[in-house]
Structures are given as structure tokens and as C-alpha cells.
Design a protein that fits this description.
38% strand; binds calcium ion; seven-stranded antiparallel beta sheet; elongated; 1 helix; 20 strands; mainly beta; 211 residues
């Protein structure tokens, strides 16, 4: 709960996400808030430094007499420009996406509610999903392959994947495996347990073990 005596109402905080936005080794904390019913105030999106000092906050859109963000935000590069956006689910004005300038070198430490898109609350050091394309996470290699555009690179962490790979579209893509949790280097190997079907397209494979 956020207590701000001057506001005169109760303000509640969502779960946080944790990102080192400027990659200076000190994590920033991002969360949403909502105010008590009947307050006629809107919630906000907040960014604090690691000591709890306010760095930035913005009011959510006004929608009726009340609005708020009850769920944890998700931080990702949703428009592919290299900078991150916090994606905030609001009570009365849908999904709000905010731009965070100069965050192309940010380190996402805990990028969404319960730490990962599977909501397992585990894998603290691997906050991102284990497969991604241009910073966008996917739940499986197949999901990423289905979403890949021509000549895009699918990156996979050095983890175990149990799935049949159906690489059957006509577009050329590159697969690069073995990444660490932050996708900074690929010195390991993903292990895929399943069948691989390749048809018509070209898939350039770099580092993958098929069982
Ligand atoms: Ca920082
Ligand atoms: Ca972006």
C-alpha cells in the first residue's frame, strides 16, 4: 500500500517488475497503483530507484470517476524499436503502453508478474521467456517460428524444450540457440526432445541439440 497523507485516500500498489533501465548496475522498480473506491482519483504507473525514491510517475487515463492498474505491468520491447515499454493493464481504459526512452541497453531482471510469462514465480534469473525474436518472448520454439518474419532470428536459451519442431513455412529464418538468461551470449546448447520436420523453407541452425 502506498500512503500519501496529502492525498487523503488509500492508494494500493500492484506487484512490481524490476528492470535496470539505464544498465548502471542499480535496478529500478516499476509498478501500477489504484486508489480506494469513491476517491474520484486515477491510479498511476510508477518508477522508483532501488532505494525507493520516486524517479517518475504518470497518471493513468481518466475513465469515468475511477481508474487503476491492479495487475503487475509487463516490460518488453513491444514495438521493436529497441527501447522498452511497460504494458499496463488498467481497470477502465484497457491496456496502456508507455515509452521508456534510452532503455535499449536495459537489463530486464523481473519483467512481468510472477517473473515469467508462465507465471510460475520461479526462475528469477531467467525472467524472460526462453525463446524470443527481436526481444519479444515466446513460450516455445514453434510459437516463435510461427511468428517469425523473413530473415528474422529466433533465439533460444540453453534449456530443455519438449516439442516437435514443425519448420514448414516457406520463409527463411535463422535459429540461434544456447543463450543465457539475458540473451547476452550463446555459449550453451538448447536440447530439443521431439521430432523435427523441415519442408520448403530455409532454416539456418546455429547451436541446437535434437534428441
Ligand atoms: Ca538503473
Ligand atoms: Ca520499444
Amino acid at each position: 500500500m502506498l500512503i500519501r497523507p496529502l492525498e487523503g485516500v488509500l492508494r494500493f500498489a500492484s506487484e512490481p517488475v524490476v528492470v535496470d533501465l539505464d544498465n548502471d548496475g542499480k535496478a529500478e522498480i516499476i509498478f501500477g497503483s489504484w486508489t480506494q473506491k469513491g476517491s474520484n482519483l486515477v491510479g498511476k504507473a510508477h518508477i522508483l530507484d532501488m532505494y525507493g525514491n520516486l524517479l517518475h510517475e504518470i497518471e493513468l487515463p481518466t475513465a469515468g470517476d475511477w481508474n487503476g492498474a491492479l495487475a503487475a505491468p509487463t516490460v518488453a520491447d513491444v514495438d521493436g524499436d529497441g527501447d522498452l515499454e511497460p504494458v499496463v493493464n488498467t481497470a477502465n481504459s484497457g491496456i496502456c503502453v508507455y515509452h521508456l526512452p534510452n532503455t535499449n541497453n536495459a537489463r530486464i531482471l523481473y519483467g512481468t508478474g510472477r517473473g515469467n510469462f508462465r507465471r510460475t514465480g520461479s526462475n528469477f534469473s531467467c525472467a524472460l521467456d526462453s525463446v524470443r525474436i527481436s526481444g519479444v518472448g515466446f513460450l516455445s520454439i514453434n510459437n516463435a517460428y510461427s511468428a517469425a518474419a523473413t530473415d528474422q532470428t529466433i533465439q533460444a536459451q540453453a534449456q530443455n524444450f519438449t516439442e516437435d519442431l514443425n519448420l514448414t513455412t516457406s520463409i527463411p529464418v535463422t535459429f540461434r540457440g544456447g543463450y543465457d538468461c539475458q540473451f547476452l551470449s550463446n555459449t550453451g546448447y538448447p536440447i530439443v526432445t521431439g521430432k523435427v520436420t523441415i519442408r520448403s523453407g530455409t532454416v539456418t541452425m546455429d547451436k541446437i541439440i535434437i534428441k
